[in-house]
Amino acid sequence: MRAGTAPAGRSGARFRAVALAVAWRNLHNYFSNPSLLLPGLFFPLLFFTAFAGGLPAVSELPGFDYPAGYTAFQYAFVLLQSAAFGGVFTGFAIARDFEHGFARRLLLAAPRRTAILAGYGLAALGRWAFTASIVTVIALLAGMDVGGSGVDLFGLVALALLTNVAAMFWAAGVAMRARTIQAGPAMQAPVFVVLFLAPVYVPLDLLSGWIHAVATVNPATYVLAAVRGLLAGEGTHVGLAFGLVAALLAGLGVFGLRGLRKAEAAG
Amino acid sequence: MSSAFPTQVGNLARRSIVRTLRQPLYVVPSLLFPLMLLAVNSSGLRAATGLPGFPADSYLDFALGFSFVQGALFTTSNAGTELARDIQTGFLSRLSLTPIRGTALLAGHLAGAVLLGLLQSVVYLLVGIAAGVRLEAGAGGAVVLLALALLIATGFGALGAALALRTGTGEAIQASFPLFFAFLFLSSMNLPRNLMEVDWFRTVATYNPVSYLIEGIRSLVITGWDGQALGLGFGIASAILVLGLAAASIALRGRLGRT
After folding, report:
1. SS3 label, residue B150
2. How many independent structural domains does chain B possess?
3. Whole-angstrom Cα distance, residue A109 to residue B254?
4. How many domains does chain A have?
5. Closest Cα of chain A to B97: distance in Å?
6. Shortest CA distance to A172 belongs to which of A161, A160, A183, A158?
7. How close is the nearest chain B Cα to the Cα of A113, in Å?
8. ipTM of the complex
9. pLDDT tens figures, B78-106
10. Which of B26, B42, B46 has the most A C-beta neighbours within 10 Å, making it the best mutation to test the interface with A?
């Protein structure tokens, strides 16, 4: 029986089964292989340690008016960075699955192939949840102040979570087109550039010159400002940030799905 | 034997240089990434020059030194990966059947890393000068800066070779990259040590040898001729080179003995 003619309930169950199986396999590989687990954890922790430990003096500059302190200021950046890279690293896993031939067998076996993408998306969320938990515990142990309420923190997590899925769609789109791990830099470099062209070290108002001009039009600036604002209990650009992430999610979702179609067509 | 040694080094050096220059994936990222980080940091942290006691009027002047050390990190990775490939493809085993000397093998192999290090350093310096950096130590300082940067790149290249000879796999070299990256980030790359407010971070940066490599190069740009900073920079870079070569020689002897 073709999936398209199956009753809606059965079709949904098959979708769930494929998505959960793909997610479980990906997460199992991730947690049982230190060479996959450690880099995803290492870089956010390194950035957090280096920036929050090495640069607090910057918060004494006139005009630096973030109330939750420099540790929280950098935690917000690292949280967003870990979310984006959790998605990108899932793209690496997709490329590896294509190189080893597993993804092609998966395409043959799955009754609804969009479930494969959903499975990788769930895996990206699982990876990020683990990294974010570790980074958060370390930030709290380092004395991070949290000024936001429960609702604010829910919004913060939601923004990071949507960023994670958007980055996964981007990396999956590239991985399914290239179908080789050699496309890793193409998945990683644009995300890295967009994140670091946001106000990483100081607020936007303290930037000047070309970086201020670039940061002003960089969507990541407003998402980062919203995450920092929610952490401190201030509503800064929250609506704009959710709108930008939703638009990004929609655009990159289409990019990811079209990548899946291209992978199907390639056979 | 004495006349054969330069020939052996020359042949292996030519192979190493050609192989390095033929691979854009080695040359381009090692030039672009440090310059990109320099652009982002020098603009993003420009306001830090307003901190009381900051030693430079321009953050670009302060940050330029880091690019040379970051570029040298790529040398570690490239030199190690190439040697690991020689081990994995059996080239080193075939070479061990010839009367080549181990020192010639190491010296020839490092030639590609040294050349790439020199190329990177010249590019960083020219880009810095084009962007407005003025060396307080003048033209002579530029020569000393390039010499120090080359020594650092060669030392890091020797460490990469030692790692490759010890492990024999490119994956191990790539896996070591984050460790070297941590040494870079936990140093005085972003702020002078006396302006670091967090005690433990300042302690880590003080014990981290990479801080002194950066500060040695930085001193030529923002201070002029600072004997202490240069002495520490050249001393630590030389120590890294000696340690790297010693570790590589021991690992090479063990590997050739097993062949």
Report:
1. helix
2. 1
3. 49
4. 1
5. 34
6. A183
7. 33
8. 0.78
9. 778 888 888 888 888 888 888 888 888 88
10. B46
